[in-house]
Amino acid sequence: MRFGVVVTDDDPLWGGEKGVGDYIIKRFEGRNSSRDEFTAIHGVSGQLPDKKDIITYDGFIFTGSHHSVNDDSPWMRRLEVFIRNAYQTSQEFGRPRMVGICFGHQLIAKALGGHIGGNPDKKFNFGSIDINVDEGFLSNDFATQVSFKKRRKSSITMMKFHGECVLEAPKIARLIGSSEQCKNEILMYGNTVLTTQGHPEYTKNVMALTNSKIMSRIGRLDEDEIKRNLDQIVNDDAENCTDMVNAFLHHMPLSINDRMSNLAITGKNQKKNATSKRAMFKRTETIAA
Predict the structure, then answer these.
(1) Could you tell me which CATH number the domain at 2-253 has?
(2) Closest by alpha carbon to 162, among 70, 87, 224?
(3) CA 108, CA 193: separation in Å to the nearest integer?
(4) CA–CA separation, 98 vs 191, rounded Å?
C-alpha cells in the first residue's frame, strides 16, 4: 500500500522537514507489511500531489508542527485546498484514508470549517493525558486490532504537545474523544478521516530528548515544570496508539485498480447522464414544435 507523510514542520531541532518525515516513516514503516511504501511529502517547502494523483495513495498522515494554523501562510492555504480535495476523494471512493496529528488535526478541522484557538486553560500542554473516548470507538474494527494495556473502560493515554486546539469542530466531524484539557481531542469525519490533538506517534523518550528542548527554547514552561511533566508521563499506550493509527490507515483497503475502475465507471455514468439529458431536451423540443 502507498502512503504519503505530509510533513508540516521544519523545526531545526527535528532536523527540518527531512528529520520529521524520517521519524514518522520509521514509526509506521513495517508495522503492517514490508510491502507498504511510505513517502515524505514536504508540505512547507515542497510540492503537493496533483488533485488527479490523490487517488493513487491509500492514505496520508498530516504531521504535527511548531507553526500555528492561524498564521495562514501560503503553504498552509495550499495544504487546506489539498485537504479538501483529498477529503472529497475519500468520500467518493473510500480512499485515501487521512490521519491528522496535532497541527494536522487542527489544519484538517480548519480546512473543513472548524475554528482553532489557544488552549482553554491558557497553558501549553506538555506530557501525557487520559482521553475519554466514545464507547463504540474502541470496538471499531481497526481499534480491536490493538490490545491496549490500560484496561480502564473507554480511556486511552496519549502524548500531548500543543498550545492551541480545535475550539469548534466542523459540523461534519464526529466527536470521538475528550479530555479535561481539550474537548475535541479525537475527531472522525465519516469512516475515512481520523484526527488526534495528541501525538499517537510519540514516546516518552521523544518527549524527553527532543520536545523538552523545544519547550526550553519557546519558554512556555520553565525547566522545573518541564522536568515535572516529564516525570509524570504515562507511557503505557504509546505503542498501542501508533498501532491504532496504523490499523486505521489499513482498514478496508481498496486497491488502486479498484479505485481506477470506480473512476472509470463514474466517468461513464456522467457521460451517459449527459447523453440522456441531451436526448430528453431534443424530445422536448420536438413535442413543442
Answers:
(1) 3.40.50.880
(2) 70
(3) 9
(4) 10
